[in-house]
């Protein structure tokens, strides 16, 4: 499994990816999605395995990195670390920042490794199942993915659905891939090739965050000093091992579902930790179980989210959408054939994720204090620099200035979307799934001779449609239960 | 919690066209309608080449879905008003202005100059007054990024009054 990784080049890529991911995770507003999108052009100088190893190591380390800022300045470095703030910061305020970060580091590592094991065993099974899928099944699966995203994603399910539909709509811009007829191009030649994924991702994540930061200039962070990260004591382990394992399972499962991966997983992991705890009243006041529950779950979601990405070509989160783009750019077609034809490539990715989890444990344990200092760089210096990198990164992929303007447009749009409660993640997933949704729908209709009801005669497709309806009904039932 | 309720109450007292719910509803419906109308101008393929549905059908369906869902969220907002957002501060508008400046300068003068101007403009308006740091974000760092991208990726940036000095 590890054989392809025993090359100095890949180990250097892994080291760089883990360090870069940690830095991205620590900086509030950035994260593995933006970082992965910005580094994507550079992966063109690498071979496919190194490129994907780089992206996955950024994903694993970036997800953990968010915990450092969550514990020390009460601001999640990534959305996935939001639940970690609830107990991480109060514990740090009690003078136990080292203990809080130690628990976050250990539980993140265990969650991450657990999810890689799930990935190794579950992805090939799912890929085998996918052999049974035809166009109608893929269409139904993509619809299921989008409804799940709306249902269990952050915020209002209807707003998430609108955002997802908008993402699919963006994918229709340009020449129709089946008939070459222009759609929404309005005579602009550059639009006939469609809107690239990178300008949209960088705009929606990095530029919209820059605008958000411009509204928070008077915000003052209360920083807690960190002496050193401490490994959890035997008592801490005794208190949290069940929570860590439970959250690892929850995170891996949530990760497999197309949604906001780590963010949702950590919230569920946290609330389940509270539900099963012997001391639920301690939650929110610095509970070590709260930190373990949230951190094990968000890192477990990384491996889980890679399962549908590799086995079906359907991303499990925004960052895996970037990884999927990386795979496509490098000519690797995710899906069942990948498992049959390129097992070495896949085992390289699995091994790299495993090593990345060990590496961020080492870096986190010995370097958290140093990484925390990165947050001292003032926004008035940091964000203009991020802008320069974003502009050059976006321009570099197709060397088009129009892409840069599209990035700025989506930056402004993303800011207002977030301001009014629309998540930007469904836009990304919708954009990447758009061609699959439309293509499989149209091809299915060709097979069915235009008869829509024929979808219901396909058992697997019908199952996904029923699951989609359940997914849509779930938020209604949840809100009714909450009212009761 | 009380704060959110106060914000909701404040939003409830406004005339409907000033409320965020209506503004969002109006903007989405307005642009969706324009896009929907434009789908009627798409070319049609002859029946023999038509695979399943016409190229305009899918985007039409999406736009109708977006308009339908937007109407639902607007309707639901009568029962459960959104919280009123804080007014946007001056640096936000200056940052937006810097984006416009960036587009104008990159189109007419120079790509590198546009990055430099934006970086200095944003950094200054966000409160940075030290000349060294303004030069760092406006000239030194963009230059490093520029050369880095050019050397590693073999990227050729668009011609302009400053970029030409580098290339020729």
Q: How would you describe this protein?
A:
- The complex is a heterodimer of chains A (484) and B (168).
- Chain A is an all-alpha fold and 484 residues long.
- Chain A has one domain.
- Helix content of chain A is 73%, strand content 1%.
- Chain A is built from 17 helices and two strands.
- Chain A has helices at 8-26, 32-39, 48-73, 82-130, 135-152, 157-171, 197-214, 234-256, 261-276, 288-312, 318-329, 336-341, 343-373, 379-398, 401-419, 425-447, 459-483, and strands at residues 174-175, 182-183.
- In chain A, α1 packs parallel to α3 (48-73) and α6 crosses α16.
- The model of chain A has no long low-confidence stretch (mean pLDDT 86).
- With 168 residues, chain B is an all-alpha fold.
- Chain B has two domains: 2-79; 90-167.
- Chain B has seven helices and no strands.
- In chain B, α2 (20-39) packs antiparallel against α3 (57-79), α4 packs antiparallel against α5 and α5 packs antiparallel against α6.
- The model of chain B has no long low-confidence stretch (mean pLDDT 85).
Count, helices of chain A: 17
Distance N terminus to C terminus of chain A?
Answer: 51 Å
Shape of chain A: globular
Number of strands of chain A: 2
The class by helix and strand makeup of chain B works out as: mainly alpha
Low-confidence stretches of chain A: none
Average residue pLDDT of chain A:
86
Total separate domains of chain A: 1
**Helical percentage of chain B:** 55-70%
Structural class of chain A: mainly alpha
The helix fraction of chain A, in percent, is over 70%
Strand content of chain A: under 5%
Neighbour order of strands in the largest sheet of chain A = 1-2
Q: What is the assembly state of the chains in this entry?
A: heterodimer
Question: Which blocks of ≥5 consecutive residues of chain B have pLDDT under 50?
Answer: none
Number of helices of chain B: 7
- Our Rg estimate of chain B from Cα atoms comes to 24 Å
Give helix and strand order of chain B, one letter per element, not per position: HHHHHHH
User: What best-fitting shape of chain B do the alpha-carbon axes yield?
Assistant: flat
